[in-house]
Each structure stands twice: as structure tokens, then as C-alpha cells.
Amino acid sequence: MTQRTRKKLIDALDRLIRGEPEHRELREKARIGKLKINYSTVEQEAVLSAGALRNHKDIKKVIKSRSMGLAVDQSPTAESELDLLQEQLKEQKKKTTQANKLKDKHFKQSKNHQKALQVQAAKHIRIVQRLMDMIPFEEREKAMDKVVTARPDNIIEGKFR
């Protein structure tokens, strides 16, 4: 069983390297130039389950070296694997920097919105206080009971006099 699996994996890797996969999805990717050689695609091409490579460390090494070699060949600027990895690292750092800037921007916006919400809630409480002051003292308690019984979840805690 292991020898048959090994043969399937090697044949699949060879087909992928040549750019002639038999798997329908991989053939479509190869046609548009987006075919990647990695563990998953080799397992797909070999028609094996995910994780079938876990017992074949030698084939994993070959896949890793071939995929890096192809990536270097396809890269317009990289001349070696090290150059490619450095480019990828620069891109990742750039993305991280952008993400941090965006995070800071949204954090500042949320703080501003929180302050605006506090101001609005304070205004609302002040308006409710003034309206309550307009109701005669004897009828205030009845009015509040009506509000609470109508919608018990509609209570905003505030500091009333």
C-alpha cells in the first residue's frame, strides 16, 4: 500500500511540475497560470485523502524544494530562494504595518463615537429630567410606573434629583 501511494504521489508531482495535471480543478488553474505546487495539490492530483503525505517525508522535501524553485522562476525580481523569501517578508511587514494603522484609526474612531454617545446620553437624561420636572410631583410616580410596566427593558440609569 505504501509503495503504491508513493508511486501515485511521485507521478502526481511529476505531472504538476510539467504543468499537465489530470485533476479538473488543477487543470483549470494551470490553464490560467495559477497552479501552485504544495502538499494539498499533490494529494489532490494523486487522488488521495488530505494528509496522505504525512508518512512520506522524502516526497515532502521534494515538493518543498520544487515549489520554491518554481516560485523563484515565476518571480520577476527574485533570483534565489533567499531573495524570494525576503520579498515575501517585506510584503508581510507592509501588510502588518497597514493593518496596524487601520486598527489605530478604527480605535480612535470608536473612542470619538463613545464620547459622542456619552454626550448624547447626557443630553437625553437632562431632557428627561426637565420633562419629569414639568409633571406635577404627585403624578410623577404614576407616570414612571406606567413607563416601567409598558417596557421594562427601556430604562436608562441616570442620576435624577
Automatic annotation (TrEMBL):
Biased composition (Basic residues): 103-113
Region (Disordered): 92-113
Superkingdom of the organism of origin: Bacteria
Name of the protein this chain belongs to: Bacterioferritin comigratory protein
